[in-house]
Amino acid sequence: MARVIGPLTTAQVDQFWPQLAPGFQRAINRGGGDMTIAELWQGCRRGDWFLLVAHEGETILGASIWRPQVWQDGMKLRCLALFGTNFKTWADEMRTVAAAVARDCGATAFVTDGRPGWARFFPKAKVLRIVYEEKI
Q1: Fewest Cβ atoms closer than 10 Å to its Cβ: which of 5, 16, 68, 130?
Q2: Is 2 helix (H, G, I), strand (E, B) or coil?
Q3: How far apart are CA 5 and CA 94, in angstroms?
Q4: Distance from C-alpha of 49 to C-alpha of 80, rounded to nearest angstrom
Q5: Beta partners for 74?
Q6: Residues 4, 97: Cα–Cα separation, whole Å
Q7: Cα dihedral 108, 41, 121, 30 in deg (nearest 10)
């Protein structure tokens, strides 16, 4: 049975990062690359951002990184990166753990930006904006 742990401590970030970095790098590459793998690691390592990991025994199924942000209408918890396999086995628990983190931060909503596939993770979300890129 899949389980979600987190937020990870700094020592756990260091322990798990070598296994997680390739998945996060793939997510960055697919999502447009406005963040680097180093930024993600540093944010988690400093304890500013929250790293959650889905696993089944010793097998890592996926992970996500979250950052509290103050918006005009209040605190939100932004999902910066998410990757994984067997998504349906752990997505609900990941959302539950992230919601607990959000409440602890005083956040009232999740936010993220990315490809249309995010709707699977946030099925009740409304679209706030779309990011466009045009090569010059």
Answers
A1: 130
A2: coil
A3: 8
A4: 9
A5: 71
A6: 7
A7: 130
Q: Give dist(CA 12, CA 45) in Å, integer.
A: 9
Q: Which residues contact 130 (CB under 8 A, 6 or more apart)?
A: none
Whether this model's pTM surpasses 0.90: yes
- Which residues are within 8 A (CB) of 131 and not within 5 positions of it... i.e. 6 or more apart? 32, 113
- Over residues 65-117, the pLDDT tens digits come to 999 999 999 999 999 999 999 989 999 999 999 999 999 999 999 999 887 87
| Spatial distance between the Cα atoms of 92 and 36, rounded to a whole number of angstroms | 27
Exposure on the CB side of residue 2, measured as CA atoms within 13 A: 20
Q: Token pair for residue 136?
A: 């010059």
Give the side-chain half-sphere CA count within 13 A for 121.
29
What single-letter amino acid sits at 26?
R
Contact in structure between 84 and 67 (CB atoms under 8 Å): no
